[in-house]
Amino acid sequence: MRSVIYSLLLAAVSASPVPDIGDEVHLLQERQDNSSSSSLLPYSLPPNGPDVLRAADITTKQLTFTYGPPVGVGPYYPAGVLGTTYATMDGAIDDAELAAQVTIMRTDDAKARLDNAKYNGLKTLDDYTKLYDGEWQPSSQPTGQYDGILTNYTQDLLFSMERLSFNPYAVRRLNPPSDSIPFEVDNAIVAKVTGQTLESLFTSGRLFYVDHTVQGRLQKAQPPQYAPACDALFYICPSSGDLLPLAIRTGVSNNLVYTPEDTADDWLLAKIMFNVNDFFMAQFDHFSRNHFVAEIVHEAAVRTLSDSHPVLAILKRLLYGAFGIRPLALVILIRPGGDIDQYFGNSGAAAAQFANETYFNGSAGALRSNYFLTNLEKRGLINSPVGPALKSFPFYEDATPIYNAIRDFTGTFISSYYSSDAAISSDKELQAWIKEANGPAGVIDFPTIKTRSNLATLLAEIGRLVSFSHHAINLNQLITVASTLPFHPTALYKPIPTAKNVTDVASYLPPLDKALGFIGVAANFARPLLANTNRSLINMFDDPIMLHRMNSATRAANEKFKSAMSARSEVVRNRGFDANGLSQGMPFVWQALDPGVAAWSLTI
Ligand SMILES: *[C@@H]1O[C@H](CO)[C@@H](O)[C@H](O)[C@H]1NC(C)=O
Ligand SMILES: *[C@@H]1O[C@H](CO)[C@@H](O)[C@H](O)[C@H]1NC(C)=O
Ligand SMILES: *[C@@H]1O[C@H](CO)[C@@H](O)[C@H](O)[C@H]1NC(C)=O
Ligand SMILES: *[C@@H]1O[C@H](CO)[C@@H](O)[C@H](O)[C@H]1NC(C)=O
Ligand SMILES: *[C@@H]1O[C@H](CO)[C@@H](O)[C@H](O)[C@H]1NC(C)=O
Ligand SMILES: *[C@@H]1O[C@H](CO)[C@@H](O)[C@H](O)[C@H]1NC(C)=O
Ligand SMILES: [Fe+2]
């Protein structure tokens, strides 16, 4: 494993366009070449009677693809000869994609450093926006920084709508019967800001909450980096219907409570402090929410489904490159002295611990209760029994057409192989997978699979985990929006204030070397090279060899998926501001979920 990790790291660091693939990869490729005649046979469900060859193949896989210790944290990681081969091959895929991006990033980084005169020593907030002025192109292409994010960041509506777009997993509506008001805010201020009392906002289902206070007990990075542990209240405005921020509490030292009634500088700093915690949560929760959950479901499937099984073929497609990511994250981000220690307010060890906790306590690691709509419903963001509906919910708006198209595809696919629900229970490999997932694999909250619909939904949810659920948070989002300065630093560079009346917000922001350093990290996560290629979401199922082995109904479903996603790409790509300077009700133009740009799988 070490050699795998180091070859990945070295290739990334040396930006080698040709990945150093290990012997295991050559072996697997040879195995595949040798069996290429059988690997072109159609996929099929297991026969009702015995199939000795098929059973022997599965037995071999169980002996050679085993559950090893997690790499870093999370669920088991593939081990054994075959498990290691999978991991190595995936590593080579991720390594090649990362190396190609590192090459671009280096060119941009060199230019950005040469141009340092124009940043004016980063003395003012406006100076920070110059970091992107004609810089970091084409790293952040094809979109660049989203329109409005560098100009409208002081607006409260921008801050609140970020909770409903590029980190949609933190916010929840407070539910009057089961929740209580998390912290008090001066009544006179609440009345002035909202026209109501906190109590009436709460009881009418208009109060929302984001809780990052758990970060207070995590290990900190070294000074000069600092992190607060904020929580915040938001409300649906009785007059405008907008979701807006009401109060932010720092969670450390004097635990100050800030509101829009504070000075402009204090309130802006409060929102920036919140963003430090929110970015940390979004990124390290996504390890478990997306990667860990999808990986372990796939591991259980490899060990129980024959390579001739159509369901395994879809899972393999969706999990393209996925096992390569945990080793990379460990080496690049989490290791002592890695990117997190260098640029975040909490340490790399804290990030690992946080991801591990969100996985094992189920908040992100549970599969079924985090299904697309279930997750949004349980947080009161859609179909809420209390309070008004959200006026605009960009993540939901953009994710729904993608989810529906994936579910259409998996629905047709499953129905084309299983003629009835009874066929689900008579598929012994599928039943073995379910048992494995609930048993040795330890998948958390694996769904009940009794009907074709259950299975089609499970596959659609795996499709969600590896695509839009992930890309709303990660990859292109880092440089285009989620870590853009001055509003979204990954750490503060002065201790959290113990009193209000701050006048120099810029002095809390990263100095030039840290700012450029982290933009470079963010650029490495961008994947402009995948846009408009066979790696973009439009092509999620468009694997010619796989489709050749599928049936005609599945091939037709792929064509339908592609045209639905191409049409959706047009919509997102051509998005702009309306007459009020808003897009999807936000003062910035969010284009993360363009299926022509976002990838169809997890990548680094
Ligand atoms: C592939 O076939 C060649 C020639 O038949 C053989 O030498 C080699 O050992 C085979 N490789 C594997 C991995 O089975
Ligand atoms: C991750 O959490 C699990 C379950 O609580 C625990 O057993 C394991 O030791 C944790 N791993 C690390 C590296 O902390
Ligand atoms: C799970 O762990 C995360 C990280 O510590 C924490 O934020 C979250 O509140 C926990 N959730 C539950 C249900 O315990
Ligand atoms: C805030 O600063 C201003 C001038 O910078 C000063 O007049 C005022 O008294 C200060 N307020 C507090 C609460 O310290
Ligand atoms: C994408 O297309 C290229 C050729 O243009 C091909 O080499 C590559 O294997 C394809 N990638 C995938 C994942 O299908
Ligand atoms: C947001 O910024 C853009 C320019 O980047 C501007 O056209 C638009 O009007 C702004 N929206 C609001 C609500 O201020
Ligand atoms: Fe990721």
Q: What's the SSE blueprint?
A:
Layout: H1 2-14, H2 23-34, H3 52-64, E1 66-68, E2 77-79, H4 80-114, H5 125-129, H6 156-162, E3 172-173, H7 187-194, H8 198-203, E4 207-211, E5 231-236, E6 243-249, E7 257-258, H9 264-304, H10 310-318, H11 325-334, H12 339-343, H13 348-360, H14 372-378, H15 394-417, H16 421-426, H17 428-438, H18 452-466, H19 468-471, H20 476-482, H21 512-525, H22 544-549, H23 552-573
Helix pairs in contact: 1-4, 1-11, 2-4, 4-21, 9-13, 9-17, 10-18, 15-18, 15-23, 20-21
One 2-acetamido-2-deoxy-beta-D-glucopyranose (NAG) is lined by residues 214, 354, 357-358, 361, 363.
Ligands present: 2-acetamido-2-deoxy-beta-D-glucopyranose, fe (ii) ion
Q: How can the largest sheet be summarized?
A: 5 strands, antiparallel
Spatial strand order of the main sheet: 3-4-5-6-7
Strand content: under 5%
Distance, first to last CA:
18 Å
Rg calculated over all Cα atoms: 24 Å
Q: What's the helical proportion of residues?
A: 40-55%
The count of domains is 1
Please give the CATH architecture. Answer: Up-down Bundle
Unreliable segments (pLDDT under 50, ≥5 consecutive)?
1-21
**SSE order, one letter for each helix or strand:** HHHEEHHHEHHEEEEHHHHHHHHHHHHHHH
* Beta-strand segment tally: 7
CATH superfamily: Lipoxygenase-1, Domain 5
Shape label: globular
The CATH class label is: Mainly Alpha
Mean pLDDT: 94
The number of helices is 23
What is the CATH fold-level name?
A: Lipoxygenase-1, domain 5
